[in-house]
Amino acid sequence: MNIKFYLLPIFVFVLSTLDTHAQDLREFRVKPDSTISQELNDKALAVKKINVPIPKLELKVNYWKHWTSFGINFNQAQFSENWKQGGVNSWAILGSLYQKSEYNRSNFNFTTVMDFKYGKLKSENQIAKPNYDRIFWDNKLSYKVSKSWAIYTSITFESQFDNRFTYGKDQGGRDSVTGVISSFMAPGYFTESFGLEYKPDPTFSLRLGTGTARQTLVLDNRLKPYTGAQYFERYGRYLDPNNPDKGTGVKFGVEEGKVVKNDLAFQITADLNRNLAKNLNLKARYNLFADYRDINDPNHRLDATFSSKVTSLINVSLSGTILYDSALDGKVQWSEQLGVGVLFNFPK
User: Fold this and answer.
1) DSSP 9-59
2) Distance CA 287, CA 301 (A)
3) What gap in Å lies between CA 230 and CA 29, rounded to an integer?
4) Is residue 120 part of a domain?
5) pLDDT (tens place) for every residue of the chain, 348 residues total
6) For residue 14, is it within any domain?
7) Residue 71, φ and ψ in degrees, nearest 5
8) pTM for this structure?
9) Does some domain include residue 251?
10) What's the CA gap between 232 and 294, in Å, rounded?
11) Number of structural domains the chain divides into
12) Where are the beta strands (DSSP E) in the chain?
């Protein structure tokens, strides 16, 4: 008998046994319970609120900005007594103060600018004389109506600190004062203006003052425009004994017997304060004042200053003024100053 015949029943028995064990193992498998517990489902989810304390910062908005610069220029020349090349001992000093403050809130802007300069020059055997003298104070309130245009109103005050004299020689050949040319509030100017301002960027502005009034004041008794009678009352004599009615004439545009002249005019004012290079700045102001009674003879004034920083303190400046005012002189007047000195800027 073939052996394979005997092994076949054994093989079938083993297979059936293995199948039984496999089936039993599947029955012992535990399936995960996907149902939600009724107890948890009935219990509301509680969220605990936590209040986080927020510190009080007490922050305040500062609508003001301030810029201040103060400078001193000094020049000096000294020669020995046996110096044969020419020249004279001399010194000159010039002090300047510039202050600007701005208030900006919403469309409102208020700007105040003060520009004060005073200098003296002293040469050997001569009287010390002012070589630069200016008081300028401008205040402007404006309201923006578009990105570059605003309605503005302003008031400006201009005068000088010291007396300016005429000079001559005394019997000893020394300098002597012979008369007064101008002084503080002789003349002094108050200018009120209303109109439109064009300001495309922070460095340039142009004002068109369609309604501008100016008061010219002469308050120094030495310079007032006296009538013949007023001159006699003050000095006890007549300017011209043959003509008692002859007075001093018009002074700074103010008529005899008065101390104030009122003008109504059209005004153009352009301001530029721009850095041309890293250490080079140009500051310029042009003003045209055209009296409506004589609009064909307007006054012009241009002030310009180039300043360059050599170091954080040392500054070189070149400034000049061109002026035409027929009430002062029928010709164009000009001045120029070149100086080296120290300049302090705040904030730095």
Assistant:
1) HHHHHHHHHHHHHHHHHHHT------SPPHHHHHSPPP-----PPPP----
2) 5
3) 131
4) yes
5) 455 555 555 555 555 555 544 455 566 566 666 555 556 555 555 667 788 777 777 778 899 999 999 999 988 888 888 887 878 898 999 999 999 999 999 999 999 999 999 999 998 888 999 989 999 999 999 999 999 999 999 999 999 999 999 998 887 777 889 999 999 999 999 999 999 999 999 999 999 999 999 999 999 999 999 999 999 999 999 999 999 999 999 999 999 999 999 999 999 999 999 999 989 999 999 999 999 999 999 999 999 999 999 998 899 999 999 999 999 998 999 999 888 999 998 886
6) no
7) -135, 155
8) 0.81
9) no
10) 33
11) 1
12) 64-77, 90-105, 108-123, 129-144, 149-159, 164-169, 175-182, 188-201, 204-217, 260-277, 280-291, 299-309, 314-324, 333-346
For tokens 């700045």, name the residue.
Answer: 281
Using left for φ > 0, alpha for ψ between -120 and 50, and beta otherwise, residue 48 falls in: beta
CB count within 10 Å of CB 103 equals: 14
Say if CB 267 and CB 288 are below 8 A apart: yes
- 270-295 in b/e form (b: 16+ CB < 10 A) is ebebeeeeeeebebbbbbbbbbeeee
CA angle 343-347-348, nearest 5°? Answer: 60
Structural domain includes residue 191? yes
Both structure tokens of 242:
């043959």
Cα first-last separation, the chain: 120
Prior bond to 298 cis, omega within 30? no
| Pair of tokens at residue 111 | 């700007």
CB contact at 8 A, 207 and 193 = yes
CATH of the domain at 189: 2.40.160
Strand partners, 180: 165
Distance of alpha carbon 325 from alpha carbon 135, whole angstroms: 18
Task: Give the three-state DSSP class for 235.
Answer: helix
CA-closest candidate to residue 260, choices 272, 252, 268, 269: 252
In contact, 115 and 136? CB cutoff 8 Å: yes
Domain that holds residue 187: 64-224+259-346
